[in-house]
Design goal:
281 residues; alpha/beta; 4-stranded parallel sheet; two-stranded parallel ribbon; 8 strands; 45% helix
Length: 281
């Protein structure tokens, strides 16, 4: 009930902003106004849209998207979007809640609709083929909304998909099949499925609870038995738990990015290359 009540208050407050507060309006440039939910979707929209769109993001880059709550100002701005892009599949509960409340003049894109969601893990973009499908879905939406620049959107998408294909070839040639990953955040099922790996996680999908001493001891025992050299953590969540396990097991703690946010503003291809370096350790 608390979430529902908070959501109703946000909607009400947003309505007040829309009717009585002109400063929340997005400045119009003649370009499609595109809003995205969080970093990964923002990067994909920027990759496809380039300078042909006005792009804004809701969840700040260093903020965990799972538990984020939009402000009334966020809601007011979203109501002026020509296109709103979110991942879906349980990634951003708030985006799924508000999608049906936005004006019919805008287009809402659930990027996870482009892929097959196979389990409770919403991090579908960590599968390289899924990322290509999500990019193409965004390209199609932008091309429909702005047919004048459709060729630009298509060319950027094709160029970037070629880069993703090159990265995928590097993964396929890396001998990852059969590798067992010990991770603090159980967010890598799609990545593992694509390349025949397996993840063992200390925490669940959202990573919103600390593991118990018994869980940590069990993981340490499994790491020692497996002869594993490292445990992976998502830098957005921090390395405290990973370092504790690593110290106990006598191994390294290494970053494995979920691409939910990035303090350096790196793009998807760059992050996936960084992940491969960690996986090859």
């Amino acid at each position: 009930m608390k979430k529902i009540s908070r959501f109703i208050l946000i909607i009400a407050a947003a309505a007040l902003f829309l009717t009585g507060c002109g400063e929340t309006s997005v400045e119009k440039s003649g370009k499609p106004v595109v809003y995205t939910s969080f970093y990964a979707m923002n990067d994909f929209a920027l990759t496809v849209g380039g300078d042909d769109i006005e792009l804004y993001n809701i969840v700040p880059s260093g903020t965990e998207p799972h538990d984020f709550e939009p402000t009334a100002s966020d809601m007011a701005k979203l109501s002026e979007a020509d296109i709103f892009i979110y991942n879906g599949a349980g990634m951003e509960h708030w985006a799924e809640d508000i999608a049906d409340t936005l004006p019919e003049t805008g287009t809402v894109i659930c990027a996870a609709d482009a892929v097959e969601v196979t389990d409770a893990d919403p991090h579908v973009w960590l599968n390289l083929e899924n990322a290509k499908l999500q990019l193409q879905l965004i390209c199609d939406a932008l091309s429909e909304a702005d047919s004048e620049n459709a060729d630009n959107y298509s060319q950027r998408t094709a160029d970037y998909i070629a880069q993703i294909d090159a990265v995928k070839a590097e993964y396929e040639n890396a001998g990852l099949s059969g590798k067992r990953l010990f991770v603090t955040h159980g967010a890598y099922s799609y990545l593992c499925d694509e390349f025949g790996m397996e993840q063992t996680a200390l925490e669940g999908i959202s990573g919103d609870s600390d593991p118990s001493p018994a869980q940590m001891a069990k993981i340490v025992d499994e790491i020692k038995a497996e002869g594993t050299k490292c445990i992976f953590y998502d830098p957005l969540e921090g390395d405290k738990t990973a370092n504790a396990v690593a110290a106990e097991a006598g191994i390294e703690a290494l970053p494995l990015y979920t691409f939910e946010g990035d303090g350096e503003g790196r793009d998807y291809v760059t992050i996936m290359k960084e992940n491969l370096k960690s996986l090859l350790t």
